[in-house]
Every structure is written in structure tokens, then in C-alpha cells.
Write a structure and sequence with these properties.
The chain is mostly beta strands. It has 2 domains: 101 residues, Beta Barrel (Elongation Factor Tu (Ef-tu), domain 3); 86 residues, Roll (SH3 type barrels), CATH 2.30.30. Helices cover 7% and strands 47% of the residues. It is built from 3 helices and 13 strands, in the order ββαβββαβαβββββββ. The strands form 2 sheets. Strands 7, 8, 9, 10, 11, 12 and 13 form a 7-stranded mixed sheet that branches. The radius of gyration is 20 Å and the shape is elongated.
């Protein structure tokens, strides 16, 4: 039985999924988490995690209510986070958490430096590039942020902006969204306005 379990009724509304339990670690109740970002610093800093149980096979993408667990100890290990949760002492208990997603409230994230950003804050931002006259033009909306090993890369769904302000996403003949990958480095993305969900870059755009 995990300590401090609670139902979804008490779960914060700003939970962010940061990783997934991939296996037990050792025989003393530790678990191994694969973090979604390049490092798991937020997971290491948080003293309380929220776990979501995957739904039965056939209900992909559906999760049960979240419950909070206290983190007794955690550390990085070969690109993963290993942790022991309060009240968990054996491998069978740890193995039972395989497949659970691990979440932390966005409000609990440590503050960043001026030139640092959490990937979750970039998702949903509108990215502007430049046309051949070096004028700002909407490229699209950031759908995801991936790591190529050297730096972060913005995965952007191409879009135009209607008079109403709504985005109209461009699609291929087969109905798939057209995407462009933009390196998230200062040489290209020069202005980050998280408050207004806008990124400005010098990335060329083919109009």
C-alpha cells in the first residue's frame, strides 16, 4: 500500500506527465522511470508525484484517476530516474507500477533561468519565421519538442491564421498535418514570449 494515496478529486489541475514507470529496480522496492525530457531534474526535485494507471488493453490513451505518492529517494541512473516511494519495500510492489505515468504539477516546477524553458511551456506556442523579405510570417503551432542528442527541436504543425485569429492547419492530400522541424537554438529562435505563447525566429518559410 502506497503512502498518501488520494483520488483524482484532490489532484491538481495542472498535472504534467513527465515520464513512465518502465520496471522495478533491484529487490527493495525501487522503480525505474523513463523521463520524457532529456533530463529528469523536475522529477528529482519533486517530493510528491502523481501516478496514473493505464487503462485495460483496448482503451489506449485512457487513464484512471491520479493518486499522489511521496518520494522517499530518487536519483539519475544511466539516463533514467530510479526512485523509492514511501511505503514500498519489495520488488513485487514496484513491478505492479509498470506502465504507470508519472506526473508533477506545473506549479511545482523549479524556477528557470532567463534563457531556460520547460518543454511543456513551448508546446502550443505559435512560431513565426521570416519570408524572403525578412518579414515575420506565421509558420504554425508547436505540437511537440524532441531531443536529437545535440539540442531540442520544435515539431511544428504548419498553419495560417484566419481573420478571426484562429489557426487553420495545412494538410497533405491524404489529410495529414504538414509539419516542419525547427532547431530550438538561439541562432534561430531569438524571441521566446511564454506569457503570450509566441516564438519568433529567423527560420525561412516557403509561402
Amino acid at each position: 500500500m502506497l503512502v498518501s494515496d488520494t483520488s483524482s478529486g484532490g489532484a491538481p489541475g495542472d498535472l504534467v506527465e513527465l515520464g513512465r514507470v518502465v520496471s522495478a529496480y533491484g529487490v527493495r522496492g525501487w522503480i525505474k522511470i523513463q523521463p520524457h525530457a532529456a533530463n529528469g531534474q523536475v522529477l528529482l526535485d519533486a517530493k510528491t508525484w502523481w501516478l496514473k494507471t493505464p487503462a485495460p488493453l483496448g482503451d489506449a490513451g485512457v487513464f484512471s484517476s491520479a493518486r499522489s505518492v511521496k518520494v522517499a529517494a530518487s536519483r539519475m541512473h544511466s539516463g533514467t530516474v530510479i526512485a523509492q516511494l514511501a511505503g514500498m519495500t519489495d520488488r513485487d510492489q514496484a513491478e505492479a507500477l509498470r506502465g504507470h505515468t508519472v506526473c508533477v504539477p506545473r506549479s511545482a516546477f523549479p524556477a528557470t533561468d532567463d534563457d531556460e524553458y520547460y518543454w511543456v511551456d513551448l508546446i502550443g506556442c505559435r512560431l513565426f519565421g521570416e519570408d524572403d523579405q525578412e518579414q515575420p510570417v506565421l509558420i504554425g503551432q508547436v505540437r511537440n519538442v524532441i531531443d536529437n542528442g545535440a539540442h531540442a527541436v520544435l515539431q511544428v504543425a504548419r498553419a495560417t491564421q484566419a481573420d478571426s485569429g484562429d489557426l487553420q492547419f495545412l494538410q497533405t492530400d491524404k489529410g495529414r498535418e504538414i509539419e516542419v522541424l525547427v532547431p530550438f537554438v538561439s541562432a534561430h529562435v531569438h524571441t521566446v514570449d511564454i506569457a503570450n505563447s509566441v516564438l519568433h525566429s529567423n527560420w525561412p518559410i516557403d509561402l
